[in-house]
Design goal:
- Four copies of one chain form a homotetramer.
- The first copy, chain A, folds into two domains: 2-6 and 256-342, Alpha-Beta Complex (Aspartate Aminotransferase, domain 1); 14-253, Type I PLP-dependent aspartate aminotransferase-like (Major domain) (Aspartate Aminotransferase, domain 2), CATH 3.40.640.
- Chain A is built from 14 helices and 13 strands.
- Chain A has helices at 14-22, 35-48, 61-72, 86-89, 94-97, 114-126, 153-166, 177-181, 190-196, 226-232, 241-251, 255-276, 296-302, 331-342, and strands at residues 2-3, 54-58, 77-82, 102-105, 135-142, 170-173, 199-203, 213-217, 289-290, 293-295, 306-307, 309-314, 318-324.
- A seven-stranded mixed beta sheet of chain A has the order 2-8-7-6-5-3-4, sandwiched between helices. In chain A, strands 9, 10, 12 and 13 form a four-stranded antiparallel beta sheet that branches.
- In chain A, strand 5, helix 7 (153-166) and strand 6 form a beta-alpha-beta unit.
- In chain A, helix 1 packs across helix 11 (241-251), helix 6 (114-126) runs parallel beside helix 7 (153-166) and helix 12 (255-276) packs parallel to helix 14.
- The mean pLDDT of chain A is 96.
- The interface between A and D is large, with 51 and 52 residues.
Amino acid sequence: MVRFENDYAEGAHERILKRLVETNEEQTPGYGMDEHCETARAYIRRACESEEADVHFLVGGTQTNTTVIASILRPYQGVIAAISGHIAIHETGAIEDTGHKVLTVPSEDGKIQAEQVKELCDAHWNDGGPEHLVQPGMVYISQPTENGTTYSKAELEELSKVCRELGLPLFIDGARLGYGLVSEGSDLSLADIARLSDVFYIGGTKIGALFGEAVVIINEDLKKDFRYFIKQRGGLLAKGRLLGIQFETLFEDGLYFEMSHHAVEMAMNIREAFIEKGFSLRYDSKTNQQFPILPNDVLEKLSKTYSFSFWEHIGDSHSVVRFCTSWATKKENVKQLIEDIKALEMEYASV
Amino acid sequence: MVRFENDYAEGAHERILKRLVETNEEQTPGYGMDEHCETARAYIRRACESEEADVHFLVGGTQTNTTVIASILRPYQGVIAAISGHIAIHETGAIEDTGHKVLTVPSEDGKIQAEQVKELCDAHWNDGGPEHLVQPGMVYISQPTENGTTYSKAELEELSKVCRELGLPLFIDGARLGYGLVSEGSDLSLADIARLSDVFYIGGTKIGALFGEAVVIINEDLKKDFRYFIKQRGGLLAKGRLLGIQFETLFEDGLYFEMSHHAVEMAMNIREAFIEKGFSLRYDSKTNQQFPILPNDVLEKLSKTYSFSFWEHIGDSHSVVRFCTSWATKKENVKQLIEDIKALEMEYASV
Amino acid sequence: MVRFENDYAEGAHERILKRLVETNEEQTPGYGMDEHCETARAYIRRACESEEADVHFLVGGTQTNTTVIASILRPYQGVIAAISGHIAIHETGAIEDTGHKVLTVPSEDGKIQAEQVKELCDAHWNDGGPEHLVQPGMVYISQPTENGTTYSKAELEELSKVCRELGLPLFIDGARLGYGLVSEGSDLSLADIARLSDVFYIGGTKIGALFGEAVVIINEDLKKDFRYFIKQRGGLLAKGRLLGIQFETLFEDGLYFEMSHHAVEMAMNIREAFIEKGFSLRYDSKTNQQFPILPNDVLEKLSKTYSFSFWEHIGDSHSVVRFCTSWATKKENVKQLIEDIKALEMEYASV
Amino acid sequence: MVRFENDYAEGAHERILKRLVETNEEQTPGYGMDEHCETARAYIRRACESEEADVHFLVGGTQTNTTVIASILRPYQGVIAAISGHIAIHETGAIEDTGHKVLTVPSEDGKIQAEQVKELCDAHWNDGGPEHLVQPGMVYISQPTENGTTYSKAELEELSKVCRELGLPLFIDGARLGYGLVSEGSDLSLADIARLSDVFYIGGTKIGALFGEAVVIINEDLKKDFRYFIKQRGGLLAKGRLLGIQFETLFEDGLYFEMSHHAVEMAMNIREAFIEKGFSLRYDSKTNQQFPILPNDVLEKLSKTYSFSFWEHIGDSHSVVRFCTSWATKKENVKQLIEDIKALEMEYASV
């Protein structure tokens, strides 16, 4: 079975493992106070062109989203998110568990528009008794989104502008940030992400690390006492240097972007193969996740050799599925998949 | 200004005030352990034909909803509710504040259907990794709904059946329960409500009491330690006898239903007047809330004499508004309103 | 049975009931937006000599403590309180339920000293890894305390000074504030309370109202969005005017203090009787709660005619009990109690 | 600088790193559903002689304590713990953050006695209004304790018996479980731990793993839906196999115990050296943490070469400090430390 079901099926890039082995016997202080973490923070600040940024390392995405959001909102506030946002669906209500409502807005492609944020806030403040409603307190977006789509620089600038006008911190979930930054047509740099958001994180788990997410806090008001939040929510890794060593490796010379490039290239090849065969794509993703709409017999056939994720039914005859590539995806596997796609004998026409 | 804006604009029925005055110098134990509470509990059990029910008295609706729901759900569970449910909108995220997601289902009229509950649960349990999703843990409905509509006996039986099959406690928010029970065409008795739900409350605040909601727990599993929940959430009134005295008065000889009848009669008169004048109604309510769709100039004209609530815009020219009656609504005020409706000179046609 | 077991055994002062009856048919907006609440707020600001104060009305003490504390603390902060503080013991963990630890300091008499606050904070900030500990975020005291004792002006000034130096808001639980303000030897006025605290509440439930606590927010930083907190925590009474009417009556011409005087006078008479008979007192209370140490046979004898609260055992032969007076305590009952104390034939010597 | 300040200063045992490298390119399902986790679970069940146990892997200790405790308690319940318990002090109020009070009992050595649990519960249930108090809902102990002391089999059996009589689940924090199990004089096996508790965890972070704690749930009632809790609290590691691989290595052939033995041997050597030199020990620890009471000049001298943790002041002249050994402690470092202790010229006598 060749796995395309997610982007965390393997361990870590070999350079990361090598560094873990090399540094294994070093004695360091715990909880992220070691030299490796310091160096990694410096590399990340440099990559973000944000010398004043605070950088913290956490283990996983749900933990990171929960910690950041709980650190920003007041108890009666909620976080605005796309209805398809990870925090709205796939985190077992972790945000609600911290006492906050996720204020969802509709979205076809996983993105939310500046205008939607403005309308939601206007509706709140124009209500006769706004204190009976959850007050919007921040905005959460994913770049790239859970559907593989990306915000353009113009879109992000507009969203950022509206957020700042409304006094809403903008938090970018970058679980797959690298895959978005290097995607075809992307006009956003890491520095842009830092400039246009208040806080974001750079995902390591899905891009070459064993685990780890680097939270970058740009907005001065959000920096205070963040380590208390991490510790209280169980995210302060005792051997914090494991995170430092990994991000040091990822950001010392561009490995993070190099791996992202590879994954996106592989995904685009798969995308092309599906399109050439006449299949439609559910979302116009230029990143490492591809969502072809497949007749169910095709789906069944491919699933004998490949694992991928079921996404949703389209009528009785078709389904959307997700193929993920990653830094670890092997060229020969993609090549084989493409050949198998080409070789499909189609009984049903695509949607 | 004659107020139709809500059903809590006045104090309490005069008999309740009289009893509070008569009993004022009695010395009683606190926190609902007094004789008046005991008597009121007995009256309510009798009215519900549920001799084994536990009855607790709380002060207000949000408090009651929060306390009941927090007492039922496990931390990773959510409560299924209509998207228009009071807990989903008008309680400042009080449910989320207790750590739980409100799992909303679409609704045009404020009701939810048994089938919707079943589908939501099927979707959860058929997911590849249900533990990444909030688990449905109970169902919340309002009778009558926030839109004035009511469940029929058949609908409630079907909903109750599905909930029991799925192991989901069914909680009925009865903030306006009396208005529903006496509404035209209603085939549900208080005993039916008790029989078909696991827990519900009988609203006093909106039906003749100064304040107070009587929680009736039918399901044996939900009874344990409920007083701890009330106390922890700040709902255990020191002078608990105030609640006992009020519900004693409401249920000793049918005053609760008598007052409900009056309010519904007044509302139906207003409804008729709007219909006769050619206005449409947003919801088919037979209870104390009426939702006419009015041209904006009519709205403006009426608002010079009457207060009522804005509900929503319909295009640029019309609005839905809410007229509420209550146990305290004066016949002469309703009569005057009806005459003013009849006398309207219409510039716009109704929608 | 004559009840001295608590200070909430009766209803309300007759003037309050009279006003509730007189205003019963008025139609007012809900949720505290009515004229009675406005007037009551003005009276309270005047009494506090704090024209800029925000005044909010809630129903009960646990609700008030929880709402105020949850509105002040950040998630990783705790509230400093005496080990005997109401929030530390008798509120079913309501503060913890909002996510916050109660950081208790030892106390013999119910009070905490400025020095204790300073030491606790020093210990926190001097710890090698303070983010592993709950950060002190505010201070809670009761005036009078749960033991009937009171802070002097000098003590409160010192505590207030330390709190301000440390950036810790000082919150005074005034469930029995009136009884403290009028107590023998008290040198604190309501204006002093306002001047020296950041937020406090004036208890109505235990001093003549049916229910109700008036939160007075002095510190500008704590005012923002407080109504959201009240609503979210279920404390925004629909018929808010009930609170307004009661506090209007209590503060229009000094009724609050007049009733407090009566209760304290009654308590001091009881205190004298116990002392004269040779009994010791557990706490040196000059307020409406008295804590005599009684031989168990005396306790048993008195309990045939009077109800009072058991407080704690002292060895095998004696117990501390609590006698409470209130605005409603009848002179003839106190006279009878005093005579019964005088008439006791003592088998055991007092401790 | 030679570090004895904690037991998480290095990476992982070389065999663990080797396995991570070997398995790095394997493609596995995420979230703990892989073969390595399955195998590790089987090894642990075997080591616990509990074939029916559920085994889950989490990343760190605070996360594990919070997740387990939140999964057991009802909202109005608290967890009984020693006043020195890790959850009571060093987790930034993580337990309170989940809404629960830590009900602390006094302890001189870090252990709690069966009798203390019984007394606390009796006091609760004999209170006139127990619903005003936090209800005891479970018991938390650490084995070994934060002070390095250990429960004997007799003590644990008595505690377990009382907990079962009272219906309180017993949870054992085993962050350093190995060090306790192999300590001199220990009469408890892993199977005993499983037999006498309801749920416990086997710490990996401090005993040879990069990170990881294995939760073992014995009590059938506590097993339900535990994965929801892990996910909701951010503890479901995407690359769950990292935990599986580590625990597989630790438990396939006794490596866990072998490493524990080494650490304890090293600690006992240090202990002997201090005792021989005439120093007292604050706690009678036979495990990997040693707490000598040192004159401050000795402390200062040793701190030039060795890092260790300050614990507490004893008067002006002495301090308690903590020396930790671990699986990674080098014999030559211990030897050097012992020589340096022997060579101390003492100005002060020990306490």
